[in-house]
Amino acid sequence: MNTKQITSRRLFILDTNVLIHDPSALFRFQEHDIFLPMMVLEELDNNKSGRSEVARNARQASRFLDELVSDAKVDEIEKGIPLKLSGLSNEEHYGRLFFQTRTFSQDLPEYLPGNKADNNILGTAVALQGKLPDSKIVMVSKDINLRIKATALGIAAEDYHSDKVLDDTDLLFKGHSELEEGFWDNHGKQMDSWIEEGRTFYRITGPDVENWAPNQFLHGQDESAFSAVVRNINDHEAIIETLRDYSSPSNKVWGITARNREQNYALNLLMDPEIDFVSLLGMAGSGKTLLTLAAGLQQTLEHKRYQEIIMTRVTVPVGDDIGFLPGTEEEKMTPWMGALIDNLEVLGPNNHGGDWERAATNDLLSKRIKVRSMSFMRGRTFLNRYLILDEAQNMTPKQLKTLITRAGPGTKVVCLGNISQIDTPYLTETTSGLTYVVDRFKSWPHSGHVTLIRGERSRLADYASDSL
After folding, report:
1. Is the pLDDT of residue 435 over 50?
2. How many CB atoms lie under 10 A from the CB of residue 345?
3. DSSP result, 336-374
4. What pTM was computed for the model?
5. 330-365, pLDDT tens digit by residue?
6. How many whole angstroms from its chain centre is CA 138?
7. Which residues does 306 contact at the CB level (< 8 Å), separation at least 6?
8. Where are the domains of the chain?
9. Does position 201 have pLDDT exceeding 50, yes or no?
């Protein structure tokens, strides 16, 4: 690389973990130039083998790089390769990609030995900063410690932000909103109402309508006040429908009722055949899994709407890994599905039934509920299935896309998770796949989302969630 060819005021040095986290990161820096140290290519090569997500992303990043340099000559590589790839880059404004093609003298302090990969990259950054005084050298890494060391050496360091869905999780769509005081005075004058197939609809016109989303829930300031769901939005006009009250004993879903307003919203989405995708987000004990399983059992065994329930999740341990598990695919997944087993105990036959009744019901449930591993999902198509993606906060956007696109005709997909309990490395609340799908699906008329606010597990669990 000829440093004289760099003309942009900002030069981003990418760490290996950025490309492994998002292979398309090469095309996310608009008109700015990117520099890849040779150590990054070595680490990509070391991580390319295997069937893990890291290996797949390393191979994809290598393919992008190969496509960029395939037709380039040596002098073109020295001048910088245009970061222009069909479908992934901005055709009008793009920077250039520079590779390290010569050795730089690394003037690192003695306490940072250069034989370590991170320190080798830091040494390259320090050398570039000395050769390019007019350019701002920025180290981009998902590694917090590397960013700290870079800052200590006087090099600007940033996290990779392009994969963030939102700047703050407080901006995440909650799926329900409270009507402001005086709403009916401002919007009730031109309101129409009618009853259709036993359901009450309202046509509302006004300024607040533009801020609503399809299948968003609306409620008054009082817990027992008016509650409705937005069915259709057209410019300044919206059609809303009153909800079915699943807190009433007459509307039980597989023997359970909603304990609060948000649970009622969730059951309205889960039981609606016109909703193909549902995301439920909430704290531990808020009832996400219980409500989802109850709605799935009701629609699978009684309504015959779905053939079976399929449940999967990411196998990321909270503590030390217990090693390989014996048995079939379903037996290997059993330890990860404790939530399924616990909730089936609540939804299964009560203690007043005989042993034969409980055994027959449990056998029926085991035939209709299948536990599947994410590792074998690619290429599959689920027809008329009720697909539950548990612990979705530990999935990347790419993993969730892979799973959701498995849905065939008649399949409903339900994503469950708590973005404050992320165990996957390099995933945060703003980059989680669950946050990604909530934000991307909020405007689709066949999807719905609810953030469950209150815990209903026990007073001990509620206090621990608030205090610990």
Report:
1. yes
2. 10
3. GGHHHHHHHHHHS--TTS-HHHHHHHHHHHHHHEEE--G
4. 0.73
5. 555 565 555 666 677 777 655 445 565 555 556 666
6. 28
7. 296, 299, 300, 384, 385, 386, 410, 411, 412
8. 3-158, 174-242, 269-467
9. yes
Strands (E), 190-257: 192-196, 199-205, 217-219, 227-234, 237-242
Tokens 């009622």 — which residue?
264
Query: Helical H runs in 70-116?
Result: 74-79
Hey, what are 317's tokens? 């341990």
Phi-psi region of 404 (alpha: psi -120 to 50; beta: other; left: phi over 0): alpha
- With CA atoms as reference, report the closest residue to 435 among 206, 188, 165: 165
Lowest-confidence range among 157-171, 182-196, 222-236, 321-335?
Answer: 321-335
Torsion of CA 133, 139, 145, 149, to 10 degrees: -10
Predicted confidence (pLDDT) per residue in 368-401, tens digit: 888 777 766 777 889 999 999 988 998 888 889 9
Measured between alpha carbons, how far is 113 from 97 in angstroms, rounded to an integer?
28
Tokens of 229: 């769901």
Q: Quick one: DSSP state of residue 382?
A: B
Closest CA to 340 of 310, 317, 377, 320: 310
Copy the structure tokens of residue 271. 């039981």
CATH class of 3-158: alpha beta
Higher-scoring residue by pLDDT: 116, 222:
116
CA 102, CA 3: separation in Å to the nearest integer?
Answer: 11
User: Looking at domain 269-467, what is its CATH homologous superfamily?
Assistant: P-loop containing nucleotide triphosphate hydrolases (3.40.50.300)
Say which residue, 441 or 191, is predicted with more confidence.
441
At residue 156, the 3 state secondary structure works out as strand
Q: How far apart are CA 29 and CA 97, in angstroms?
A: 11
Q: Do 3-158 and 269-467 come out as alike in CATH topology?
A: yes
Which of 81, 50, 52 is CA-nearest to residue 65?
Answer: 81
Beta-sheet strand order (sheet of 156-158): 81-82, 96-99, 33-36, 10-14, 136-140, 156-158
Arithmetic mean of pLDDT, 42-59 = 86
Mean pLDDT computed over every residue of the chain = 82
Cα dihedral: 62, 68, 71, 75 (round 10):
-110
- Token pair, residue 212, equals 């609503």
User: In the structure encoding, which two tokens stand for residue 170, read together?
Assistant: 């407080």
And the tokens for 133?
Answer: 């005084």
